[in-house]
Design a protein that fits this description.
- Helix content is about 25%, strand content about 25%.
- It is α+β, with helices and mostly antiparallel strands and about 290 residues long.
- It has a single domain, classed as Creatine Amidinohydrolase.
- The strands form five sheets. Strands 2, 3, 5 and 6 form a four-stranded antiparallel beta sheet that branches.
- A hairpin with a 2-residue loop joins β15 and β16.
- α2 packs across α3 and α4 runs antiparallel to α5.
- The radius of gyration is 18 Å and the shape is globular.
- About 5% of the residues have low confidence.
């Protein structure tokens, strides 16, 4: 689940003081017990996604996926982080987010069966012993259009380009620029209103990770010990979105075009970014979707 920033246009940041203030608020996880906690939460979250994977097929409702996720999480003694999460109008009512076709993010599971040709993002966050793990993945249902496959592939590749753009001491701008330039070059656009986020013992914290470069560039440094998500949302048409629907959560593309997104939780170590939410059975960097 990503953080809303509700930008009305290209991101414009205040002066350097804002970046300095952000750095002072970024939690750093320096001890092995802390990092092991992050790894355990993310590892379980990845196992949960693999548990759901065989069921994300035509004929299954997203409400059924939600019930499976809820039961699997509780059976292992953990907590679904999204369930009851405070919103602008109502708490989030389900355990996972399922965003189908033109839904950009925060789609609420319902009784509509998945259909041949759909694309769906399954977004999971779990609390394990007080630590959070967060990730999402796109699923292509049956035979999908070339456009649907393209946007899913570009979103996947954008995620890894963002990851590989950074190293210890690198800046947030490097992530944003790598994602944006690639997606635009592929004839697609990048959602501006929602972004990645820091994570740890809180669901959402500093640093915010926009997927579009700002003016002036965001020079916030990602130091070893920083834990955060990268989760680009890529649209086939305009980057603009519609604000949440009557359910208080579901966000759609403004023009009805398709949207795709992938997400990993990352820990910046002294040697570079460690992907904490790799699944056993999901796609790997460089794969074709």
């Amino acid at each position: 689940m990503r953080v809303a920033i509700f930008a009305a246009g290209p991101l414009v940041l205040p002066p350097l003081l804002t970046s300095l203030m952000m750095r002072s608020r970024i939690p750093l996880f320096q001890t092995e017990p802390e990092r092991d906690g992050l790894r355990r939460a993310s590892r379980f979250n990845a196992q949960l996604l693999d548990h759901l994977r065989p069921h994300v097929v035509a004929g299954t409702t997203t409400a059924e996926l939600d019930r499976m996720a809820y039961s699997f999480t509780l059976d292992h003694g953990h907590t679904p982080a999204c369930l009851g999460y405070p919103g602008e109008s109502v708490p989030y009512p389900k355990s996972i987010c399922t965003s189908v076709n033109d839904v950009v993010c925060h789609g609420v599971p319902d009784d509509r069966p998945l259909q041949n040709g759909d694309i769906v993002n399954v977004d999971l966050t779990t609390i394990v012993d007080g630590w959070y793990g967060d990730q999402s993945e796109m699923f292509l249902i049956g035979e999908v259009s070339d456009e649907a496959r393209h946007v899913a592939q570009v979103a996947f590749d954008s995620l890894y380009l963002g990851i590989r753009a950074i190293e210890p001491g690198g800046t947030i701008d490097a992530i944003s620029r790598a994602i944006y330039e690639y997606a635009i070059g592929e004839g697609l656009d990048v959602v501006r209103e929602y972004q990645g986020h820091g994570i740890g013992r809180k669901f959402h914290q500093e640093p915010g990770i926009p997927h579009v470069p700002s003016r002036p560039p965001n020079r916030t440094v990602i130091q070893p010990g920083t834990c955060f998500t990268i989760e680009p949302m890529i649209n086939t048409g305009t980057w603009h979105t519609k604000r949440p629907e009557a359910d208080g959560w579901t966000v759609r593309t403004r023009d009805g075009g398709l949207s795709a997104q992938w997400e990993h939780t990352l820990l910046m170590t002294e040697d570079g970014p460690e992907i904490l939410t790799l699944t056993e059975h999901g796609p790997r960097e460089g794969n074709r979707i």
